[in-house]
Amino acid sequence: RRPEIRAAALKLDNSRLDEKNARNQKLPDLSLVGSYELLGLGGDTAKELDGTSPFDGSYSDAINEMLSGDFFSYRVGLRIDIPLSNSEAKARHARSEIAVTKAERELQDTVSLVALDIERAVADLGSAYKRVAAATLARELAEENLRNQRRRFELGAVTTKHVLDFQQKLAEAMASQVRATADHAAALTRLHLAQGTLLERFGIKLEGPTGQASPWWSSY
User: Fold this and answer.
1) Which end of the chain offers a freer environment for a tag, N or C, measured as fewer CB atoms within 10 Å?
2) Percent of the chain residues past pLDDT 90, beyond the cut
3) From residue 77, how far is each of 34, 35, 63, 73, 178 by CA, in Å?
4) What is the 8-class DSSP label of residue 47?
């Protein structure tokens, strides 16, 4: 779920679409062509001496006849384009194949880097957990030693300085435990960051545009 992986995967998909389009450009092209025309005739026929039959009448009469749809012509046919050398399309297809290979390698490299980040984060988290356990044990031992020194002080076996020294050691052990706990929290955050789940950990959800299904003809 790292954005780097998503971006690299999207780039690969786009490169494959470009390669597919470039490959299709090398193929013959068959097109269905057609046209429909409306004609406007104005006035009445008046046969001339030379055999012609021009139409007299105004321009508005011709417009009215065209809008009536009584006079029309249409044409339907097939057109096929067969490339001969087609060197430009072949060169474009070769470049698109290189782009696909490059995008695949970039995706693999990105996945490898992300996996390495996760492995390091997991190792750091395990080390931080051990430090927390050691610091907690040291703090518990310091508390026990302080309790023993206080009992000995009550019995007159030690002086106030001994008690203060053990109080100082307990304060240092507690500070070490706090630092170890903070380091563990930071290591856990780095792990979520490496996994791409940091926002989810804090309840933050990003929603992109709703994806639409591809039309059936896009698969050809």
Assistant:
1) C
2) 51
3) 6, 9, 28, 14, 83
4) -
